[in-house]
């Protein structure tokens, strides 16, 4: 599992029938300090995440293990929305009602 932030959405009016009804999100992976790393990734949304949310996501064969993505041509999936995290007793992130600035 990886931590990421939803940075946008993707709309595809023409797609394989097995992807009909999927909400597609654009993500950036985050490091443990909340800094964006790497390239953007398109992921199927299995949990109702939105732009600005910090999420857990998986890629590769693990992305096809949710109820929604099982046996579908999906290489990345959002499977949880993060409420908070802490490392060695220090809180690194807490979601706010508006979508989550980093804890200071």
Major sheet details: 5 strands, mixed, barrel
CATH homologous superfamily classification? EutN/Ccml
Please indicate the percent range of residues in DSSP E strands (runs of 2 or more): over 45%
Label the structural class: mainly beta
Mean pLDDT: 86
- Named CATH topology: OB fold (Dihydrolipoamide Acetyltransferase, E2P)
- Just give the CATH class: Mainly Beta
Give helix and strand order, one letter per element, not per position. EEEEEEE
Proper CATH architecture: Beta Barrel
Low-pLDDT runs: none
CA-based gyration radius: 14 Å
Q: How many structural domains in the coordinates?
A: 1
In order across it, which strands form the biggest sheet? Answer: 1-2-3-5-4
Can you offer a commentary on this structure?
The chain has 104 residues and is mainly beta. It has a single domain, classed as EutN/Ccml (OB fold (Dihydrolipoamide Acetyltransferase, E2P)). The chain has no helices and seven strands. The protein has strands at 2-10, 24-30, 36-45, 54-59, 76-81, 84-87, 90-94. The chain has a five-stranded mixed β-barrel with strand order 1-2-3-5-4. The chain has a two-stranded antiparallel sheet with strand order 6-7. The mean pLDDT is 86.
């Amino acid at each position: 599992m990886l931590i990421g932030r939803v940075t946008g959405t993707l709309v595809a009016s023409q797609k394989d029938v097995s992807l009909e009804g999927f909400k597609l999100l654009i993500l950036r992976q985050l490091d443990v300090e909340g800094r964006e790393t790497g390239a953007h990734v398109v992921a199927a949304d299995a949990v109702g995440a939105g732009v600005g949310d910090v999420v857990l996501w998986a890629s590769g064969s693990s992305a096809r293990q949710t109820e929604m993505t099982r046996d579908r041509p999906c290489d990345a999936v959002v499977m949880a929305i993060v409420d908070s995290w802490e490392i060695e007793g220090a809180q690194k992130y807490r979601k706010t009602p508006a979508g989550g600035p980093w804890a200071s």
